[in-house]
């Protein structure tokens, strides 16, 4: 058994930490002695096997590409520090985050320890089966080998988003509009309880429940019916999936494992993704659907898969079908297939709306009941130069580099934390500002990165395939035009364009993506971005907890 070496010993020892994290959370649901023992044994076996593989891969990469491997380690070190900082931050707010959910119940440490001991022979036996090829894992090994960077960065951000979701979506937040005009209270009820009716009676989410609630139910099955934490896990997994898909697109459309990792981390650490990868709303799901559609186009998948994804976009929010049409038009450049796509989607939306309201009676009015759109009039505003200016700043700057948010005490017993507020009740239009040196400096640095990307795009506009770039640019312009009139806090919709902005720039930066100076610049920027955007999380927690007894 040649694998019984220092590498195996380190994998077994370092695997204890993730095993503790997973087992201590799951013992809230599986609390008997046998359950804790089995869970810890299974968790630690998987952790040990994965770390054994990971340490071997790191050693190989350090030999072959030492600088790339070193920068990747530096990035993951920064992300791990950020994760630890988030855990420490949440521990300071016990009324929002119950730290006992991550601690073993009294007496379970003994059974956990027995499980760790049991994992040792289980790990040895499994590795021996793999070594002798009696356990065939070639496809799994190939998938992990090809996508390791994306999987790792996705896992780290899943943990970040899940921890944040566990604090920002608690039932104590029993009002909408607290954070960035989100309806988190509504969607917590609609996704996680039997009270699934839309109390705003809107038609713009025609079959969102049959898309999202099955995933919550599935996750709830593993959490013994706890649909609240299941919904937290689902939104965090969706955010992590977005990070992985950004990595996947960058890796396969541009190339370069380190560059793809940096782009994915940049996206995952953006203000928009930290917020909507953790807040219960529809926008995190919309961002994931848009990215799935983009990857399907990249992989040249068949029409039926595009139709399913387009139906999901429409079912969650009707306007988001537009970005799938834009992407299809520019990438496929096949008018006949686009017409076929539109006809099939159009033919299926009514039956799916009927199905949604059959499974969930009176969930909301049918999509053809246009009288209910009168509710949306309060979110419609006249287009002005000032609104265009503020919208542009939110889209290009605030969606990535978080400013000091607006804090407003108005019509609910919580201080509202917003990025932008349209002119309401004769109150002037307002926008968040960068008020310290770090935020201001990063905003200028980000503007420099964007300007550099624009210059490279224009320089190479006739020299390379720009189908995806044009699709992303038109998507950004579509949402700029839409939200020039619609939205009280336009940051609410940032999931619709943040991925498009970052991927547009990633494509534009392709010329310098392998330049060491540019990679180092991106790495340093991401580290500073994590520090800056951490302040936004601190503000959200500090302000909101003031109204919780």
Question: Topology of this structure?
Answer:
Blueprint: H1 6-14, H2 16-26, H3 33-64, H4 66-91, H5 108-131, H6 138-168, H7 184-192, H8 209-222, H9 227-253, H10 257-268, H11 271-276, H12 283-298, H13 303-316, H14 321-332, H15 335-359, H16 385-398, E1 406-409, E2 415-418, E3 420-421, E4 430-431, H17 437-459, H18 467-483, H19 498-508, H20 516-544
Antiparallel strand pairs: 1-2, 3-4
Query: Whole-number average pLDDT?
Result: 92
What is the H/E string?
A: HHHHHHHHHHHHHHHHEEEEHHHH
Which structural class fits the helix and strand makeup? mainly alpha
Net shape = globular
What topology, given as strand order, has the largest sheet?
Answer: 1-2
Radius of gyration: 24 Å
Largest sheet: 2 strands, antiparallel
List low-confidence stretches.
Answer: none
Fraction in beta strands: under 5%
Number of strands: 4
Oligomer: single chain
Distance between the termini: 58 Å
Account of the 3D structure:
The protein has 549 residues and is mainly α. The protein has a domain at 1-73 and 103-136. 66% of the residues lie in helices and 2% in strands. It has 20 helices and four strands. It has helices at residues 6-14, 16-26, 33-64, 66-91, 108-131, 138-168, 184-192, 209-222, 227-253, 257-268, 271-276, 283-298, 303-316, 321-332, 335-359, 385-398, 437-459, 467-483, 498-508, 516-544; strands spanning 406-409, 415-418, 420-421, 430-431. Strands 1-2 form a two-stranded antiparallel ribbon. A two-stranded antiparallel sheet has the order 3-4. Strand 1 and strand 2 form a beta hairpin. Helix 2 runs antiparallel to helix 3 (33-64), helix 8 packs across helix 9 (227-253) and helix 10 (257-268) runs parallel beside helix 20 (516-544). The termini are far apart.
